[in-house]
Amino acid sequence: MTCARCVHYSVFAVCGRLLDLHSAGRRLKEKQRIFTSMPFSNLAQYNSGFIKGQSNTRKTVKMVRAWYHDGADNEPRSHPHMMEPCQFISLEDLKKKTGIEYFQFDADTVDSNEDYQKLREKRGYKNEDCVELTRAKLPNYDEKMEIFYKEHLHEDEEIRFITGGTGYFDLRSAGSDQWIRVEVTKNDLLIVPGGTYHRFTLDANEYIKARRLFTELPKWTPINRPDGDKHPMRVQYLRDMGADAP
Length: 246
Ligand SMILES: [Fe+2]
Description:
The chain has six helices and ten strands, in the order ααβαβαβαβββββββα. By secondary structure, the chain is α+β, with helices and mostly antiparallel strands. The structure holds fe (ii) ion (FE2).
């Protein structure tokens, strides 16, 4: 026979569990909201701090960083290649100079993130796959890394969502033609417009894992410089950026 006190405690425990689940759900939604579509200027506020309103979870948000490449091509590409002193570029300026778009999503919860799904729908990214760049898993590792580091452009956008590891995207400034290095880490999503000259390298950790998003069929054939100079997508890109064609 069940006593009244046990029933009372059981109901209390169930209610408590439901409240816990409700709070957890609210915390997850809040986390997703903060991670989603954060403008560059707002992201800067989170650079060294914790997500607001989450004193219990205290999750640190790392901000993507960009700087002018020092041009020291005699040193390993995996080095940061910062000038002395380093010339960092704000994310607003990065967009103005290269056209790249930046988003941040929590990679651990991204599949249930409504804003990530909305971004995919809005941009027509119907498909995605996953790549892992590391010596152990990528056949012909050195050869592939050479291809990635050759300055090139694509007809389509290049979209990369980093789910683990680190690396460097180098992007040519549309106006000055200077290299700008963007350090990517977990949770960063970059959209590199078609027609942007760029290259990629791993850092000294030699590991990155990323989702590659695309519309119908991926068009990732690299068009190396200078072959891409007269490509209609390059001409269009420079026009969109308000820069003169070479
Ligand atoms: Fe590329």
